[in-house]
Each structure stands twice: as structure tokens, then as C-alpha cells.
Amino acid sequence: MMENKSRALEVAIRAAQEAGKILEKYFETEILKEFKEDKSLVTLADRESEEIIKKIICEVYPNYCILGEETGYTNNKSDYTWHIDPIDGTRNFANGLPFFALSIALEHKNKIIVGVVYNPITRSLFYAEAGKGAYLNDKRIFVSKDGKDHAIITVDPGKKDEDKKFRRVLQHNLPATFVCSIRDLGSTAVELAYVARGGLEANIQLGLETYDFAAGTLLVQEAGGKITKLDGSPWVFPENKFIASNGVFHDLLVAEVKKQKAKLNMD
Question: Please, are residues 227 and 217 in contact by the beta-carbon 8 Å criterion?
Fold first, then answer.
């Protein structure tokens, strides 16, 4: 168990657990599905989850900025911003598939200092604090030590058509030439958390929103993993195209991604 948790981490964990009760209530029910303009899915559970998370956080930190997937950006002119995804993997959630999580992260001047990822169905509570390690249900976790020959990786799509096309290229080409296999779990927060606990060896991000990956990136870093931009240069939040891995074959993965991009004449 992490000793001397900050107040911010304790608040984030409490918010995650309370919102998790809402997700449990709605999971595997005939919940109403709605579609946004970008064709992404939203449910009543998303909205209720974000509402309770924001309520709990704002009671303690009323002057911090908040970026929530469902309610947008609240600019309180603070150096601190909460990044909230009330359900990352809504499509899985709405279809009764247990690969989803809520994600809460606190940023201070482009550095994530607190991160929580919680799947209430599997009772998996991941949390991390800058400089204090990463934990799963109060047990310290670390990235795996497996190399590419035994690696399982995931690739998450971006919003642009070219990024979605590149994702398909990576999913098709990388397994045959480079790693053991590629999975698509449908939740960035879950995938990054699994990299942190050694369940996956790498995750490639191609352009999602900060609330999708903010908490997960801190988990990976605090579990001993490595994150760079796609070209291998240093990664700094909120850059949304990056490779997060256990570090064992990171440079080889960067080189392979570069090679696949070159084939498509992508910058």
C-alpha cells in the first residue's frame, strides 16, 4: 500500500469508487444508447458518473480547472487541471463487455501528478502518484520484462482518417513481422493500466483526448515503463501520439513504427 497518499489522490480514489457504484448499477442493463456527432457512444451512466466525480472533486478543489469528456472544459485559471473520463470504453460497457474503466488524473503545468483508473466490475483499482510508484488494489505493480517475441501490444486510433488508416496498417503488419500478437480491448485507460501491471508489453497512441490517457501514462511511468513520441523523441503531456511500453524493446518498436509510416509517406 502506498504510504502518505496525497489529499488529491485520496479524493480521486473516493470519486472513482463512488462513480464506480453507478457503473455497476447500469452494467448489463438495457441502458439507453445515444450517439454524438463524431459517432462516439454516450449513455446515462457516462453523464451520472461524470457528475458524481466532479461533485466530489469540486467539494475539495473548487478552484481547479476540470476537463471532462461529457461536460467539457471548466477554466478556473488555475495551474491545476483534472482530466476526467467517466467511462473509457463506453461501447464495451453498453454492450455488457467488462473492458472499461473510469479515469481521473490531476495535471500541474503539463505534468500528471495523480492518476486513478478503476474498473468496478473486476474491482481493479489502479492508482499512482508522481514519484511514489504505481499500485493495483494497494499492491505495487511493475511493467513486464518480456521482449518482443512474447509481446502483446495494443494500438489505439486517433480522430483523423489518416490516423485510423495507420492504425489498421499497424494492426495488420506488426504481428506478422514483429510481435507475438495485437489485441484491441476498446479502452485506452484499461490498456495503459495493463501495460503498467505487466499484462501488455506496449500501447501505441495515435491521437485521442487527454482524459483518455492522462491517468494511464502516469501508471506506466511509475511502474517503470517508458513513453516517447512515435519517433522516439521525448514525450511530454499533453502530446497525444506516443508509444508506451515496458522499455525492453521500445527502440525496436519505434523503428518499426517509423518504417510503417514511411511506407505510407506519412510525416
Answer: yes
Residues in the chain: 267
- Please give the pLDDT value at position 101: 98
Q: Write the DSSP string, 7-56.
A: HHHHHHHHHHHHHHHHHHHHTTS---EEE-TTS-EEEHHHHHHHHHHHHH
For the chain, give every domain's residue range: 7-140, 148-263
Q: Do domains 7-140 and 148-263 have the same CATH topology?
A: no
User: How confident is the model over 156-185, as pLDDT tens digits?
Assistant: 988 899 999 999 999 998 887 788 899 999
Fold of 148-263: D-Maltodextrin-Binding Protein; domain 2 (3.40.190)
Please report the pLDDT score of residue 19 as a whole number.
Answer: 98
CA distances to 205, 230, 236, 260 from 267, in Å:
16, 11, 19, 11
If one counts every other C-beta atom within 10 angstroms of the C-beta of residue 34, the result is 12
Cα dihedral angle (209, 25, 116, 241), rounded to 10 degrees? Answer: -20
Model pTM score: 0.95
CATH number for the segment(s) 7-140: 3.30.540.10
Residue 266 DSSP label:
-
